[in-house]
Amino acid sequence: MPGLEDLYREIILDHYKNPRNQGTLETPPAVMEQGYNPLCGDEVKIYLLVEDDMVKDIKIDGQGCSISRSSASLMSNAVKGKSLKDVYKAIRTFKKMMALDEDGHEDEETIEPINEYTVGELIALQGVVKFPVRIKCATLPWNTLSQALEDATNNS
Ligand code: ZN
């Protein structure tokens, strides 16, 4: 279905050209983590404000290729305003989409089927799996988010 792939490509280009949630947050109360992907030169800074077990706000700063930038933008949309439980679920779902089973203890029950209805625009990133060299670009913002979540939850 070339039509579907075109749509995914459009979503990625849209988030690259018009990145969502760009900027910075005051630290503290927000935490900041940065990630770097030496293979591509992608740099990402994630500002995260966690309150009441929710991602109250998230801002993205940095520079990189279209994949890393659009992945960061899509991620920010997917987690902003969500409960930490949903955010961790989104991270697991994304890793599953990238065919990464880092911990090997996935609880399949907690992961919804991956399609455009359950993961929304994030589905557009699934095409990245076909380009292994780009997977690190796509995962960079998500790994950096995990670090920021750790900082935020340790502080509170
Ligand atoms: Zn990249």
Question: How would you describe this structure in keywords?
Answer:
binds zinc ion; globular; alpha+beta; 3-stranded antiparallel sheet; 156 residues
Overall residue-averaged pLDDT value: 88
Q: Number of helix segments?
A: 5
User: What small molecules accompany the polymer chains?
Assistant: zinc ion
Number of structural units classed as domains: 1
CATH level 3 topology: Sufe protein. Chain: A
Q: How are the strands of the largest sheet arranged?
A: 1-2-3
**Fraction in helix:** 40-55%
User: What is the alpha-carbon Rg in Å?
Assistant: 15 Å
Strand content is 15-25%
The low-confidence parts are: none
How far is the first residue's CA from the last residue's CA?
A: 47 Å
Oligomer state of the chains in this structure: single chain
Structural classification:
alpha+beta
Overall geometric form: globular
Write down the secondary-structure element order: HEEEHHHH
According to CATH, what is the class?
Answer: Alpha Beta
Number of strands: 3
Biggest sheet descriptor: 3 strands, antiparallel
Annotated CATH architecture:
Alpha-Beta Complex
Outline the fold blueprint:
Blueprint: H1 2-17, E1 31-37, E2 42-51, E3 54-63, H2 66-79, H3 84-97, H4 116-119, H5 132-155
Antiparallel strand pairs: 1-2, 2-3
Bound molecules: zinc ion.
Zinc ion (ZN) binds at residues 37, 40, 42, 64-65, 67-68, 137.
Give a verbal description of the structure:
This protein has 156 residues and is α+β, with helices and mostly antiparallel strands. It has a single domain, classed as Sufe protein. Chain: A, CATH 3.90.1010.10. It is built from five helices and three strands. It has helices spanning 2-17, 66-79, 84-97, 116-119, 132-155; strands spanning 31-37, 42-51, 54-63. A three-stranded antiparallel sheet has the order 1-2-3, with helices on one face. Strand 1 (31-37) and strand 2 (42-51) form a beta hairpin. Bound molecules: zinc ion. Zinc ion binds next to helix 2. Residues 37, 40, 42, 64-65, 67-68, 137 line the site of zinc ion.
